[in-house]
Write a structure and sequence with these properties.
- This protein has about 350 residues and is an all-alpha fold.
- It has one domain.
- About 65% of the residues lie in helices and about 0% in strands.
- It contains 14 helices and two strands; from the N terminus they run βαααβααααααααααα.
- Strands 1-2 form a two-stranded parallel ribbon.
- The chain starts with a strand and ends with a helix.
């Protein structure tokens, strides 16, 4: 397995990137590898090594917040503060690392049975990559919304729905370790008061949602359907999180962060707060077409969606470039195929 997860600091994520023309043509090849359902280990590792070749030690810096650093340390995250082309190299490398780790973790039951903690950690890397994709997506949505580019804003909100569903599927995949393995192998290594809400990427995404809160309540008619779809996808993620938590005894015991409250009740309170932040009804129901998820297929769909998102953010379409592997990807969105 990969030792560390090199990840851009979320403040280095952007709605769009201005890259050198020479690097743009290389980017298309890397995106093609991400879009493939099952690239070879050698091929994906070669791409990772190429992208990390110029990584400088001085660009790896810890979070200034001790709680966030505890979370990064647990997940073996190395935060990178790069500029220009190097930003995109790290962004691409992080997605490739998470994809490779996900492939290795889910290729057989070996890792799940032999090292539950490693399985838990590395399947979470996919979840974190998808959250970074959501950050980029909402930065782009905000930019297009304020510029009144409603068609483009709709695309980003639709993309956010798919990424949210995929992150929920990644959460479900991580939860396959089972309650006994979680209690004996995973939780003892977490340290005191560890919580996903401490994660830098989570906090950054919530900051963007807070900024967008006034707009969510008064979206143009053209965007209301996409907003409703996103709310439903968030409910799927929240439901997945509570289900995994319940599997590990969360309906009877507290979390590391709030041990005196039942963990599932804490998650339910967080869910209500997030729905209010998104200007949604707190009693919204999930459509039957959104559940159950085909978890592994949805995570792969998430990687493909990241490719499409980054093609827009990198301006590849303006250069007439495309990822041929992405075009050939045979994954079908289970939600749409069920309609």
């Amino acid at each position: 397995m990969t030792d560390n997860f090199y990840l851009l600091a979320p403040e280095k994520l952007s709605a769009s990137y201005k890259l050198s023309e020479s690097f743009l043509y290389k980017v298309s090849d890397f995106l093609g590898i991400i879009a493939q359902p099952s690239p070879s280990k050698a091929h994906i590792q070669e791409a990772i090594d190429s992208l990390l070749t110029n990584l400088r030690t001085e660009d790896i810096r810890p979070s200034g917040n001790p709680d966030e650093q505890v979370c990064d340390d647990y997940f073996r995250i190395k935060r990178v503060h790069s500029e220009d082309d190097a930003q995109c190299q790290i962004l691409l490398a992080s997605i490739l690392i998470s994809k490779k780790a996900f492939q290795e973790a889910t290729a057989s039951l070996d890792l799940l049975l032999s090292d539950g903690n490693e399985y838990w950690l590395t399947t979470h890397w996919s979840f974190i990559s998808l959250i970074q994709g959501l950050i980029i997506c909402f930065l782009r949505f905000e930019s297009h919304l304020l510029a009144n580019n409603l068609n483009a804003a709709a695309i980003e909100l639709e993309t956010a729905s798919t990424l949210m569903l995929s992150s929920g599927a990644a959460m479900e995949m991580a939860g396959r370790i089972g309650g006994e393995v979680f209690r004996s192998q995973v939780r003892p290594k977490m340290g005191q008061e560890l919580s996903g809400i401490m994660m830098l990427d989570h906090n950054f995404l919530i900051t963007i949602w807070k900024r967008l809160h006034p707009y969510f309540g008064s979206l143009p008619e053209q965007l209301k359907h996409q907003h409703e779809e996103f709310i439903s996808s968030y409910k799927v993620l929240a439901t997945s999180h509570k289900a995994v938590c319940d599997r590990f005894g969360g309906s009877e015991h507290g979390s590391l962060l709030l041990p005196k409250l039942k963990a599932t009740e804490t998650l339910a309170r967080f869910e209500i707060n997030r729905l209010r932040l998104l200007q949604a009804k707190t009693d919204i129901k999930i459509g039957e077409d959104l559940l159950p998820l085909d978890d592994k297929q949805y995570v792969e769909l998430g990687f493909k969606t990241l490719v499409d998102l980054l093609m827009r953010a990198f301006g590849l379409q303006d250069f007439g470039l495309s990822s041929t592997s992405s075009a050939e990807l045979s994954i079908v969105d289970p939600v749409r195929s069920s309609l």
